[in-house]
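Summary of Year 1 activities. Much of the first year was spent building the evaluation harness for sequence design. The harness presents a backbone, in tokenized form, and records the residue chosen at every position. We chose the following record to illustrate the format because it has been used consistently in internal testing since the harness was completed.
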């Protein structure tokens, strides 16, 4: 799961407010809402935030897989292996 906790810390560190992002830099309030709820945003927006905050991506987001995500991926891997094995037979 993508988590934007580092973004909020970086904003504080850089002394940039949500207001400034919206009204001076053109970042939409909906984007900030999505980030608050750890929802997807575009790579273009991530690029813009890195430029605005003069930081790298790890200062905006990090990834930790949830148990559900790991279970889903493992199930998918097993399905793929099974299909490949059946094709060889």
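For this record, the design step produced the sequence shown next.
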């Amino acid at each position: 799961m993508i988590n934007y906790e580092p973004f909020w810390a970086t904003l504080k560190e850089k002394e940039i407010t949500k207001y400034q992002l919206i009204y001076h830099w053109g970042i939409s309030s909906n984007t900030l809402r999505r980030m608050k709820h750890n929802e997807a945003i575009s790579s273009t927006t991530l690029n813009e935030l890195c430029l605005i905050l003069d930081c790298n991506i790890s200062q905006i987001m990090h990834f930790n897989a949830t148990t559900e995500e790991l279970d889903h991926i493992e199930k998918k891997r097993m399905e793929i292996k099974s299909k490949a094995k059946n094709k060889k037979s």
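Residues 2-64 form a domain with the 434 Repressor (Amino-terminal Domain) fold (CATH 1.10.260). Quantitative recovery figures across the full test set are reported in Table 2.
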